[in-house]
Amino acid sequence: MNWYLIFFSWLVATIATLGSLFFSEIMGFPPCVLCWYQRICMYPLSLIFLVGLFPLKKDVFRFTAPLVFTGWVIAIYHNLLYYKILPESAAPCSQGISCTTSYISWFGFITIPFLSLIAFSAIGVLIITFYRNYHEKR
């Protein structure tokens, strides 16, 4: 069970990493400042989870939780800016690409910042479940 939790975490992180590279390198959507910060948190997760799978390492939570939490907080902030809950003056991107630029809008609400929030939330739930399962068995 615990192996599958880390495997699905790796799968979500890898899909998110490849998706962000697809949007920027293939589709030509330049990332904003907050997107870069979220990439800094997401990209290493693919490698850390992969190393933590073979063999399954209990320390994978300790190394991934700070990145997941930081990325999740930035993703929430980005979504609050994107959906204009926070004023645009609170955005860190005063020059260059705006953090509120809309590149995709699938079904009217699925945007790139929303996809990032979903990915970090899913990974967060999976690694917290892993942590609880591991400590219950001790």
Give the gist of this structure.
The chain has 138 residues and is mostly helical.
Please, could you describe this protein's structure?
- By secondary structure, this protein is mainly α.
- It has helices at residues 2-26, 33-53, 60-82, 112-136.
- The chain starts with a helix and ends with a helix.
Q: In this structure, how is the largest beta sheet organized?
A: none
| Cα radius of gyration in angstroms | 16 Å
Average pLDDT figure: 91
Low-confidence runs: none
SSE order, as H and E?
Answer: HHHH
Q: Supply the number of helical segments.
A: 4
**What portion of the residues fall into strands of 2 or more residues?**
under 5%
Distance between the termini: 15 Å
Shape: elongated
Helix content: 55-70%
List the topology elements.
Layout: H1 2-26, H2 33-53, H3 60-82, H4 112-136
Helix pairs in contact: 1-2, 1-4, 2-3, 3-4
Keywords for this entry:
4 helices; 138 residues; mainly alpha; elongated
